[in-house]
Amino acid sequence: MKTEITERIKSPTPKFFKKIRTIGLTLGAIGGALLTAPITLPATVVTIAGYLATAGIVASAISTVAKEDK
Predict the structure, then answer these.
(1) What residues have CB less than 8 Å from 55, skipping those under 6 apart?
(2) Looking only at Cα atoms, what is the longest distance across the chain?
(3) Membrane spanning segments where (predicted)?
């Protein structure tokens, strides 16, 4: 099981999933920046930032293990 996951991570990632990974990392960074902002933000903004960070992390993780079929 462990070697299968390692092989998937090391295998080439399709172009589409590279774009998804970049978008996910961007969303995660925006969400993280809002969550750690040194100013007080409204509860709605903090909630949305949490969702952005979570969605970004999940999208990046899933797109990282996608691999091309030959």
Answers:
(1) 24, 27, 28, 31
(2) 51
(3) 20-39, 45-66
Residue 42, classified by CB atoms within 10 Å of its CB into exposed (0-12), middle (13-18) or buried (19+), is exposed
CA–CA separation, 23 and 29 (whole Å): 10
- The amino acid at 37: A
Rounded distance between C-alpha atoms, residue 67 and residue 8, angstroms? 6
* The pLDDT of residue 13: 85
pLDDT for the residue numbered 64: 84
3-state secondary structure of 59: helix
